[in-house]
Amino acid sequence: MAHRITEECTYCGACEPECPVSAITAGEMIYIIDEASCIDCIGWHNEASCVEVCPVDSIIIV
Hints:
Layout: E1 3-5, E2 24-26, E3 31-33, H1 49-53, E4 59-61
Antiparallel strand pairs: 1-4, 2-3
């Protein structure tokens, strides 16, 4: 299952270094997850690490 960052993103950058496959990049106003590259951290972490570090809960499963 891939994840998506919603417009509630505060552009803090906490999620980007957490992604083990570099699927998160800075967009113009919010961070963006390449849904085709997102692996839900399977094989790396027990939970999606970006979701765990997001201070405003702006990352959802799609």
